[in-house]
Design a protein that fits this description.
Radius of gyration: 19 Å
Number of helices: 7
Shape: globular
Structural class: alpha/beta
Order of helices and strands: HHEHHEHEHEH
Strand order of the largest sheet: 1-2-3-4
Distance between the termini: 48 Å
Number of strands: 4
Largest sheet: 4 strands, mixed
């Protein structure tokens, strides 16, 4: 029996490192032909990536994350080029290791207490009218991150009172009642 892997706090485990942590292994019995994407599914990169680089720079400036980048979304260039991004709060390391998801797995560090203010300022600087906020799963937090969502919503509304806010929250794994109690006090629009 192999010794369990000791994960370091704050280290992102991706690809083979992430998959090595899953106890069930897939054994390939025969080599199959590699399937290619049909032409209509292939995305053409824009000739001018100024807008894409601008959104990435705004994220980096305030230490923010987008699910677009962290999950390796194939539509990133299309969305960023149209000025759209989905912000991912509570860090870039998920406490779960779903094999279908490309977000890094590991032991996350404590949430950034300044993230709500940084997020609100970035959104105000980008002059957004609609924002989508999601997060990694944070099973290490007692409320699953619900209070952090509420703090982000409050900070955004303080800086951009006319904005519409959509949240894509995790399942809060067994803490749904507590999370809903927190989130109903500071609800998003969607």
């Amino acid at each position: 029996m192999s010794k369990p892997i000791q994960m370091e706090r704050g280290v992102k485990y991706r690809d083979a490192d992430k998959m090595a942590l899953i106890p069930v292994k897939t054994v390939v019995t025969e080599r199959q032909e590699l399937l290619r994407k049909p032409e209509w599914m292939k995305i053409k990169l824009p000739a001018d990536s100024t807008r894409i680089q601008g959104i990435k720079a705004a994220m980096r400036k305030n230490g923010l994350h987008s699910v677009c980048e962290e999950a390796s979304c194939p539509n990133l260039s299309e969305c960023f080029n149209h000025g759209t991004a989905t912000f991912m709060i509570l860090g870039a390391i998920c406490t779960r290791r779903c094999p279908f998801c490309d977000v890094a797995h590991g032991r996350p560090i404590a949430p950034d207490a300044n993230e709500p203010e940084k997020l609100a300022q970035t959104i105000a600087d980008m002059a957004l009218r609609y924002v989508v906020i999601t997060s990694v799963d944070r099973d290490d937090l007692r409320d699953g991150g619900a209070q952090h969502f509420a703090d982000c919503i409050s900070a955004i509304r303080a800086k951009s009172p006319n904005i519409k806010i959509e949240t894509l929250v995790p399942d809060f794994r067994g803490r749904m009642d507590r999370a809903l109690e927190i989130l109903t006090a500071t609800p998003p629009d969607v």
